[in-house]
């Protein structure tokens, strides 16, 4: 979906009236409200609608499955406040974790879309360019140094942001060129991962195990507090994300063309990438290093919509769906043993990464 401030006349009436016109561009409609107009890709709307329905069904299924099993009708009655014997199980034990999975997955999808679009590389995601590793190193230091548990998330957030600062510093030459940005990120990721291993090897074994669990990424024992932090961040950034949804259209232009149409490509890339790393650092600080969601969701959404770049809203919905399903599978596949959600997302993302590498090799040959 793209926006423009230029009034576009259409068959529904003169510019300035509200309504939906058939777009002259194939596959798009034009929504006009006063002096503003919004181009809507009809396939993106259809995909977003289907993903929303699938997400709601996945959340309902996740609320139902478990010990005890709760029939979907009872889940809906509990959610409506009608009062059922399952209120404690549904509202207090399962709902907070499932809402957190949806919110965190959406945030990963948003972060991955912004970073991949700026880098113009489908392999660029927070867990590839060092943001996740910076947060992981800071969280590992906090967990193995005897710091209070409440300080782990803030430490991870600071670590992710410091990694972003280092990444921008290394990749800032030549106007934050996409290739240099990705290579700098890979180098930062390897460096932080090596430092994390050193810290864990020299730490107390119990503290090292706690750090290892955090690095895998799990939603166990988490809920409303973490979901509130992530939701609050997304709400505060909502105007920026709305701008990003429009600004992403120019990321495919080369710098000379972008300047020729009056854009500032370097400032725009820094703004988009900065928003992406901030969202990635916040969500990683809350749920740990859940890999591959930010990598997979944008590219799957792009293929579903058949767009030139990852669509922001669809990527967020797909990220939420993936993490809700991964958390459900982690809870039920080996029940009563619970697998961290990060293990399941890695099981999805690993083959997808191989697919991307093979596809890139075929194109280059």
Mind sketching the topology for me?
Elements: E1 2-4, E2 19-22, E3 28-33, E4 36-41, H1 42-64, H2 72-79, H3 87-119, H4 131-144, H5 152-171, H6 173-176, H7 178-201, H8 205-216, H9 224-236, H10 238-247, H11 255-260, H12 265-287, H13 293-305, H14 312-332, H15 341-364
Antiparallel strand pairs: 1-4, 2-3, 3-4
Give the termini distance in whole angstroms.
34 Å
Could you tell me the number of beta strands? 4
Q: What pattern of helices and strands is seen along the backbone?
A: EEEEHHHHHHHHHHHHHHH
State the helix count. Answer: 15
The major sheet is characterized as:
4 strands, antiparallel
Radius of gyration: 22 Å
Structural class by sheet pairing and helices = mainly alpha
Percent in helix:
55-70%
Arithmetic mean pLDDT: 82
Which features characterize this protein?
15 helices, mainly alpha, single chain
Task: Please tell me about this protein's structure.
The structure is a single chain. With 365 residues, this protein is mostly helical. It is 68% helix and 5% strand. Strands 1-4-3-2 form a four-stranded antiparallel β-sheet. Strand 3 and strand 4 (36-41) form a beta hairpin. Helix 13 (293-305) packs across helix 14 and helix 14 (312-332) packs across helix 15 (341-364). The longest helix has 33 residues, at 87-119. 43% of the residues are buried. Mean pLDDT is 82; it is low at 1-20.
């Amino acid at each position: 979906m793209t926006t423009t401030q230029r009034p576009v006349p259409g068959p529904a009436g003169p510019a300035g009236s509200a309504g939906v016109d058939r777009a002259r561009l194939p596959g798009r409609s034009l929504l006009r409200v006063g002096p503003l107009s919004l181009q809507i890709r009809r396939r993106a709307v259809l995909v977003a609608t289907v993903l929303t329905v699938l997400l709601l069904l996945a959340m309902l299924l996740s609320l139902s499955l478990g010990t005890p099993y709760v029939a979907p009708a009872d889940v809906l009655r509990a959610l409506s406040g009608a009062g059922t014997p399952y209120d404690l199980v549904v509202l207090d034990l399962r709902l907070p974790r499932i809402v957190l999975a949806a919110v965190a997955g959406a945030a990963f999808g948003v972060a991955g879309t912004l970073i991949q679009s700026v880098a113009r590389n489908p392999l660029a995601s927070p867990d590839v360019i060092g943001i996740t590793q910076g947060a992981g190193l800071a969280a590992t230091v906090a967990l193995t140094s005897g710091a209070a548990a409440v300080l782990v998330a803030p430490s991870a957030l600071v670590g992710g942001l410091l990694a972003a600062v280092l990444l921008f510093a290394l990749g800032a030459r030549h106007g934050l060129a996409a290739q240099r940005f990705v290579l700098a990120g890979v180098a930062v990721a390897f460096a932080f991962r090596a430092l994390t291993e050193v810290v864990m090897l020299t730490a107390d074994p119990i503290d090292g195990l706690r750090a290892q669990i955090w690095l895998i990424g799990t939603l166990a024992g988490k809920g409303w507090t973490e979901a509130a932090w992530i939701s609050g961040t997304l709400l505060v950034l909502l105007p920026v994300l709305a701008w990003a949804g429009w600004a992403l259209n120019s990321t495919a232009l080369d710098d000379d063309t972008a300047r020729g149409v009056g854009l500032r490509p370097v400032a725009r890339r820094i703004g988009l990438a900065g928003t992406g790393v901030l969202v990635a650092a916040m969500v990683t600080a809350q749920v740990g290093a859940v890999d591959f969601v930010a990598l997979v969701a944008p590219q799957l959404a792009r293929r579903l919509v058949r767009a030139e770049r990852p669509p922001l809203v669809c990527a967020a919905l797909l990220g939420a769906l993936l993490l809700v399903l991964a958390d459900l599978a982690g809870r039920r596949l080996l029940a009563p043993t619970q697998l961290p959600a990060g293990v399941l997302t890695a099981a999805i993302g690993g083959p997808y990464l191989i697919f991307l590498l093979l596809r890139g090799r075929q194109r280059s040959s």
